[in-house]
């Protein structure tokens, strides 16, 4: 499956290189490369903020291919991957369902890698280094509100997802420490941490001290993948296993199913994958900062290689987490897969601590993007330095997002619904429209026809994915 996935990525992106015009794009001056921590839930604004804090400046000639690949993979993979097993369970509980799920992951990863490449090439052609500016250069300055609003809502969804994970993770940790009653409930921890940890961190003007969150996020995600694979292999959660009797009946492995293997609920997983592969907000910067070829030719083929390896590596890690979770718990897989594991499982405890800590550090990085986006849409960006505006906006938005987490508990629904509507726009619809209507020669006539199809596919994914996400949660 890994070879098949890599072949799909390389084939589609190689085709993109062949389709783009031969005329080289103007070389860009080097800028700091973007990277980010892995604790995000598909948040472009959050990954941008974390990136600016954690990445080292590239050499004068630009960022190397290897550095670009690593940074891209870090941009892609986040804690939203912990919901993918529930995406498989949404359409089938049979073990064989993992096969179409992995094929779907590879296909959507390939499409996402291609559209990432499109944004980078169009951005270079029109002279823009942000997603918003690339769109505005193609469709006009006034239209920039569309990607801006989409990113703001996507960042708000990310903040909601963060709060859900924080509540569940720290409630489980508290239970293991012997806490009972209200002290072991997710809502109590959401309120407590929001008041005494997240609010002070979100009010900080200088977030450079939170750069350690990137390291913690990377380590936490990799550890969680290894832990889940180990528990699948040692059978601790199978009937009669060491921890099987220590989890709720609703969380125990179940592979019974009465539905056909392929049914409309598969679009819940499709929607989740749109969020899982979202890194597109930084595509123009990645292209501009990439080291140009020594012969002065276009960076397009090299950029496509970076996309292929970066998205391919991310797909492999996502596939491992999705497979380990689903093959362990089947149809019982929960929206936050760590909730399936016993509180008394010491390795699961470490995973919760790692993910919880990474979210604590990552939350303010995402939140600053949400706050700046909202102020920009309200025309108050020039007043952001005022203490009154800063405090009122921060407290209001924190109450809104974390207050919603007190009621909404299904991380899978948050990821799938956000991915269906917002992720589909940022990953499929907007990039395809930019490719179709740009007039600087970044895409050929054949490629424009391909992107007309991708535009329709994006609207289809958004509509049906949203309906099925809501229906599956009902």
TrEMBL record:
The chain crosses the membrane at residues 81-111, 145-167, 173-198, 210-233, 261-281, 302-327, 347-368, 389-408, 414-438, 450-470. It is found in: Membrane. It is a multi-pass membrane protein. Pfam families: Aa_trans. InterPro entries: AA_transpt_TM, TAT_signal. Residues 1-18 form the signal peptide. This is Amino acid transporter transmembrane domain-containing protein.
